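Researcher: I'm preparing a figure for a lab meeting and need a structural model of a single chain. I don't have an experimental structure, so a prediction will have to do for now. The sequence is pasted below. Please return the structure as tokens so I can convert it later.
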Amino acid sequence: MPLAVTHVITSIILVDLYRDYISRHRHYFTLHTVFIAGFAGLLPDIDILLGKVLGFFGEDIMHRTFTHTPLFGLLFLIPGFYFWTRRKLQQRRIAVYFFVTTFGILLHILLDFLFTTDAAGLFLLYPFSMAAYDMNILSSVLTPTFAAGLDAIILLAWLWHEEKKHKISDFI
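Model: Understood. Here is the structure written out token by token.
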């Protein structure tokens, strides 16, 4: 299963690459946008924290249920489209925050779907169905050590890209 760091890093990197190479509207994609994407990449795992807190009150929330559904991610499109229809720059930036939140959540769900190694799977259609889905790609090699090493490789590759593109060593 992807580690929490994997969810954060992949969201940050993909939004940053989009900002650097694809987006024509760079004024909408600030560094705050990249940060929000990273935070949103971790957001579906909020059900773990909610489960711990609600456990004190006798409630139980299963991991990978309502926060791991595409519907949860798509909910953030509603305010995103609302703010996008406004014409002011600040409101459009807020819309982009909601769009990258949707992206981060959906990327988290995709990574869990592809690389979850336990038998539980994801309840993608929750609450309509309790059927669990997953692909278990790389399940034979995706050990905690491998996952941590992969995170390190991804981070180093991104830092190399940032040095080449933005000369981040000038800030050290």
